[in-house]
Write a structure and sequence with these properties.
The protein is of the alpha+beta class. The chain has 5 helices and 8 strands; from the N terminus they run H-H-E-E-H-H-E-E-E-E-E-H-E. The chain has 2 domains: about 30 residues, no CATH class; about 120 residues, endopeptidase domain like (from Nostoc punctiforme) (endopeptidase fold (from Nostoc punctiforme), Alpha-Beta Complex), CATH 3.90.1720.10. The N and C termini lie far apart (about 50 Å).
Length: about 160
């Protein structure tokens, strides 16, 4: 290979690829495009399904209205009831779909919180719109809606995941 060809390859890898990513990244040509429109009807149905579980007891490992729900069980069940497959475990839900900026959250997205220091110290809920989410908080409590404006949740929010 000639010196000129090698120089061209080095320049292409180090200069042109990052420039192309900057130029075309927003167009969806080099990565997933984030839909900024209203939530699909299915996402709205998932939120409505979760709302019907308001007041159900928290239960570790629970994933049904009869037994109660833990945080990931509520998400798994609400999505499943609407024909959408998501992981059952919180740490897997925290990687499901596509990560989006929190300012772009829309109804049906999964919100992920860091609630502890261990890898298992995660908590998930379903974004409902209007800066709120529905979740099954912890033992002794019930499925409810909370605001992301509350300092407790605002400082712990680490990701929003779009599955639909």
């Amino acid at each position: 290979m000639s010196r000129l060809a090698r120089l061209y390859r080095v320049l292409a890898k180090t200069c042109l690829a990052p420039l192309a990513a900057l130029m075309f990244g927003g167009c969806g040509l080099l990565g997933p495009q984030i839909d900024e429109g209203p939530p699909p009807e299915k996402a709205q149905r998932i939120v409505a399904t979760a709302y019907k579980q308001m007041g159900k007891n928290y239960r570790l490992g629970g994933a049904s209205p009869q037994k109660g729900f833990d945080c990931s069980g509520l998400i798994w069940w609400a999505y499943k009831e609407n024909g959408v497959s998501v992981p059952r475990i919180t740490s897997d839900q925290a990687r499901a779909g596509v990560k989006i900026p929190s300012r772009m959250a829309r109804a049906g997205d999964i919100v992920v919180f860091r609630t502890g220091n261990s890898p298992r110290g995660l908590h998930t809920g379903i974004y409902t719109g209007d800066n709120a989410f529905i979740h099954s908080p912890k033992r002794g409590e019930k499925v409810r809606v909370e605001s992301l404006d509350e300092p407790h949740w605002r400082k712990r929010l680490i990701a929003v995941r779009r599955v639909l």
